[in-house]
Amino acid sequence: MSTIRGARERARIEVTAAIKDEARKQLAEEGAPKLSLRAVARELGMVSSALYRYFPSRDDLLTALIVDAFDAIGAAAEQAVAERAAGEVPPAERWVAVSCAVREWALAHPHEYALIYGSPVPGYIAPMDTVGPAARVGLVLIDIVRGAFRAGDLTLPPLADELRADAERMAADFAEGVPPESVAALVAAWAQLFGLISFELFGQFNRVVEEREALFRQTAGELARSVGLRDAGTA
What we know:
InterPro entries: Homeodomain-like_sf (IPR009057), HTH-type_TetR-like_transc_reg (IPR050109), HTH_TetR (IPR001647), MT1864/Rv1816-like_C (IPR025996), Tet_transcr_reg_TetR-rel_C_sf (IPR036271)
Shape: elongated
GO molecular function: DNA-binding transcription factor activity; transcription cis-regulatory region binding
Number of helices: 11
CATH class of the largest domain: Mainly Alpha
Keywords: DNA-binding, Transcription, Transcription regulation
Organism: Streptomyces filamentosus NRRL 15998
Domain HTH tetR-type: 13-73
């Protein structure tokens, strides 16, 4: 019985992967709003009722693709920081390396990036299942700053009085062990990093910036300094 059960589980994994792959092709060709379970089933030679056993609705399939994308970009960030051991590579250099890894993943997977950081899909409400995966890149950046603070290698950035309560709340919510001053700067830096990637990926830099990688690296270093990391270098 265990052999039969194992075969069924492997088959389910393979079919699920095939469904996701076909759905990603649809994202590239038609965009997320036009994702259709019936079209996916047709391309795979499945009847719709069979596909519904894997994904009961379009939103369930979208959620699976979103989680996969967040996990993939998060894994890229985590690998970049793991390859540069704390204590051997300055925190600012680790920050730049993570930022560049995220950009490289986005350029290699533009349609998946657009799914998670582009325009919201009409009618789709992301469930809580997406929250943990969505936080992975941010948690890597937070951990770099936390480590620098513990090592006494963090310069606290300025913090407006009217932002202090909000910054203290954010520190308690998702950045324990990081000073509120750096937490507020982290949120701003996180938004600017992804804004820069989105500008490049969605064409706003066309006929404006030619050396986009150089601009990104320089900006990532500046953002490292903005959160209090010293001597920002390059990856």
